[in-house]
UniProtKB/TrEMBL annotation, chain A:
The keyword Ligase does not apply. This is Sugar ABC transporter permease. GO terms for cellular component: plasma membrane. It is found in: Cell membrane. Residues 103-319 form the ABC transmembrane type-1 domain. Residues 1-30 are annotated as: Disordered. Keywords: Cell membrane, Membrane, Transmembrane, Transmembrane helix, Transport. It comes from Actinospica durhamensis. Belongs to the binding-protein-dependent transport system permease family.
TrEMBL record, chain B:
It holds the Pfam family SBP_bac_1. It comes from Actinospica durhamensis. It comes from the Bacteria. InterPro entries: Bact_solute-bd_prot1, SBP. Residues 1-19 form the signal peptide. Keywords: Cell membrane, Lipoprotein, Membrane, Palmitate, Signal. This is Extracellular solute-binding protein.
Length: 327, 455
């Protein structure tokens, strides 16, 4: 057993944590011991993981296989009497401009929320952490929209942006700004603005991510910056922001992948209007599964789901790649 | 090196997931399970009671309970176990339940929307017609029966329709109309425009015409306008007899656009949901309501009272004619089909209940006064106690006559072209974001793309 102590950074493996200095045991023997240790830990780990792996197998792998199968069939909601569709469903999805519009919207909305989270969310988190008055109230106010069910939140927002009698237009009129009142779901630009507003409300979780990491920031660095004469803006931009790089990554990845699950947000607020202009992948697939008129096209919707899944995997892989290459 | 290895593992896992899905896709075409087979009939000993499992979405549960109570009283050996769903949920739940082999004895079928998604698990009516009176077909409106059979892709009758519905119609708040000096239901778009102007002048806080801005409702209004040119125009569009960029189509789109550009229908109202529009009318905040015949319950003073609707008197009429030389129209279709699934082990008893609901005056009188459907039973008339005012009586008569006149089939041609392309496009036409000509060309191009075959 080694008698010296070593500093192992969080997340590093035992092998990585080995000090560079002279070792009391030959490296090969230490590595073998580590392997044995890992092997011994494997069985209890697998025991703990087994229930979740079984659930994963049943609910995810089966669902993927089922999705893959139905994507090449012509089949309705009864799932009976399916006929072979070959790759037709995939071809049709890939040539549908509305599908690509929905993917574009997904990425656009994710980009907007990332931008809002990294700027406004970061600024609010720092401001609240600096001990402003009523900060508990503000935390609740910012976090609440992220805690209530998205469908409820989006439904209320949908009511607010109604053209006639909606709270937003009514407030603008009451403030003497009637010229700014819009047909929020009628004009493409206004509808985008409405969705962006909605996304801005949802920065509660990024604020929480930043707030929790701000408590771990080494204040000596800030004090040093202050002594060196850094102004508040400079401290935020040049010191604090880079120090929270790990949090930025968490925020970016969670928003990016989460954006593919914003179905309720869009469905209950703008309903994808105008003319599918604010639709996202989720609303597009739902529209094919449960069309307001016509029969459900399960095969087509499955093909669209498979393509969206592949796009989401590709987006996250690219994101990880970019993050890892950054110094 | 370690980072690269981790990245490699990540991409490897993603690749494995992709491979799994694509393999499943490549191995697809299970061919489905096809329809189920008829369940064997349970033997019922003398004096033994039978419980029938009944799933439906219509009529309202309180109404249906009256029907069930009356049926059980008349048939002491049969009990009904009812499960009622909301309209949209039912369209999903029933096909899945029947496909999964759920044992049900009676099911309500939305004739145009659901027949083909459940027919493989239903018994054709011919299988249990021997349990009905021999002359049963002559007792039911032949058009509705014909529609119910025709909608099935194999041209087989799977359910007996309780009645028929149609759209679009105009309901009116008689008190608001009287206040504005309007003495009759508008019959042309010019008259409606004049009425709207009067209401705006006398009641500035009232929405002149409330209607749903949901995309599905736009084609209901549009096709009603189109069928004013030719009552079969929408049928002909879907069957390819008339092109989507034909002169009639452009004329219909122009008339539809004019309703909005003239201010008769407000584009601001397009952000309302159906429930919002109904609420506005029911609370006296709208003078007219564009709705389907399924909303005719508001004509009944008893219904209004029971449901807290504050409007004292309601009238109704057809959608005002919006094209020169046009005639009143409505797309209609049989609705409220009652069917027996293959999984039922009590076919004779289930048929008895269906007979009670569709072929007997007693059964009919338990649900028909709700006015949601124009009943299919020949010779049935709504009791005079239901429609208490001349406006309501005349309104209901207009709706029933327009539906009886027959027109294009409402929801008969099943394709997502309507929801994917047409409905969204109509919203653009209504907002004058596209010309009728350009819109017609766009529709024809999408129709001819092959993406939307009729199902």
């Amino acid at each position: 057993m080694s008698t010296h102590t070593s500093t192992v950074r969080p997340g590093a493996t035992l092998a990585e944590g080995r000090p560079a200095g002279p070792a009391t045991q030959p490296p090969r023997r230490r590595s073998a011991a580590a392997r044995r240790l890992r092997r011994r830990a494997l069985i209890p780990a697998l025991c703990f993981l087994a229930p979740m792996l079984a659930l994963y197998g049943v609910y995810y792998l089966y669902a993927f296989v089922f999705l893959g199968q139905t994507s090449r069939e012509n089949v309705d909601l009864s799932f009976s009497g399916a006929t072979d569709a070959g790759w037709r469903n995939f071809r049709l999805v890939l040539t549908d401009p509305l599908f690509w519009k929905s993917i574009e919207n997904n990425l656009l909305f994710a980009a907007v929320q990332i931008a809002v989270a990294l700027t406004l969310g970061f600024f609010l988190a720092v401001s609240l952490s600096s001990g402003v008055r009523f900060r508990r109230f503000f935390y609740i106010a910012f976090l609440l929209p992220s805690l209530v069910p998205l469908s409820l939140f989006a439904t209320v927002f949908g009511q607010m942006i109604q053209t006639n009698g909606g709270a937003l237009n009514q407030t603008l009129s009451d403030l003497g700004l009637a010229s700014l009142a819009q047909d929020w779901t009628g004009s493409p630009t206004a509808a985008y603005v409405a969705v962006f507003l909605l996304l801005t409300y949802l920065i509660g979780l990024p604020i929480m991510y930043y707030t929790s990491d701000l408590t771990m920031v080494n204040t000596a660095v800030l004090e040093a910056a202050q002594i060196d004469g850094a102004r508040t803006g400079q401290m935020l931009r040049l010191v604090l922001f880079p120090m929270l790089r790990t949090t930025h990554k968490t925020v970016i990845l969670s928003v990016l992948l989460g954006s593919f699950r914003w179905f309720e947000l869009i469905y209950f607020s703008t309903g994808g209007q105008p003319s599918g202009g604010t639709g996202i992948a989720g609303t597009y697939i739902y529209g094919q599964m449960f069309p307001s008129t016509g029969s459900a096209e399960i095969g087509y919707a499955s093909a669209a789901s498979v393509i969206v899944l592949l796009i989401a995997i590709a987006v996250s892989a690219v994101n990880v790649l970019v993050q890892r290459r950054r110094p | 090196m370690r980072k690269e290895a981790q990245l490699g593992r990540l991409l490897g896992t993603a690749g494995a997931a992709v491979a799994l899905i694509l393999t499943a896709a490549a191995c697809g075409n299970s061919g489905g399970v096809g329809g189920s087979s008829n369940a064997a009939q349970a033997s019922v000993a003398a004096g033994q009671s039978v419980t029938l499992n009944y799933w439906t979405w219509f009529p309202a549960q309180t109404t249906l309970q009256k029907s069930i109570d009356a049926f059980e009283k008349a048939n002491p050996g049969i009990k009904i176990n009812l499960r009622e769903f909301t309209n949209t949920n039912y369209q999903t739940e029933l096909p899945l339940a029947l496909g999964g082999g759920q044992s049900l004895d009676i099911v309500g079928v939305q004739v145009s929307a659901m027949t083909n998604s459940v027919r493989k698990n239903l018994r054709p009516v011919s299988d249990w017609a021997s349990d009905l009176p021999s002359n049963w077909q002559s007792q039911i409106n032949s058009t509705m029966l014909d529609q119910t059979q025709k909608i099935a892709q194999d041209d087989t009758l799977y359910s007996i329709p309780m009645g028929s519905i149609g759209s679009a119609f105009v309901y009116s708040n008689q008190a608001l109309l009287a206040k504005a000096g309007i003495t009759a239901e508008p019959t042309t778009s010019a008259e409606l425009a004049a009425d709207v102007a009067k209401i705006k002048a006398t009641e500035p806080g009232v929405t002149p015409v409330a209607f749903s801005g949901e995309s599905w409702w736009q084609d209901e209004v549009f096709f009603t306008v189109a069928d004013q040119i030719d009552p079969k125009l929408s049928d002909e569009l879907y069957t390819g007899k008339v092109a989507w960029n034909s002169p009639q189509m452009v004329k219909a789109l122009t008339a539809y656009q004019n309703l909005f550009s003239s201010g008769t229908l407000g584009t601001g109202t397009l952000s309302l949901k159906e429930a919002d529009a109904d609420n506005a009318f029911n609370s006296g905040k709208a003078a007219f309501l564009l709705e389907g015949s399924w909303d005719s319950s508001v004509l009944s003073s008893a219904y209004r009272q029971a449901n807290g609707i504050s409007v004292a008197d309601v009238g109704a009429g057809y959608l005002p004619v919006s094209v020169a030389g046009g005639s009143p129209a409505a797309r209609t279709y049989a609705e409220g089909g009652l069917a027996i699934p293959k999984s039922s082990q009590h076919v004779a008893q289930a048929a008895k209940f269906i007979q009670f609901m569709t072929l007997s005056q007693q059964g009919e009188s338990t649900w028909a006064p709700d006015l949601v459907l124009v009943p299919s039973l020949n010779g049935y008339t709504v009791p005079s106690s239901v429609l208490t005012s001349p406006a309501a009586q005349s309104g209901y008569q207009t709706i029933a006559q327009t539906i009886d006149a027959g027109g294009s089939g409402r929801g008969e041609y099943s394709t997502t072209f309507t929801s994917d392309v047409l409905d969204n496009s109509l919203l653009q036409v209504a907002r004058s974001q596209i010309t009728p000509q350009a819109e017609a060309a766009k529709l024809q191009s999408a129709w001819a793309s092959g993406r939307y075959p009729l199902q």
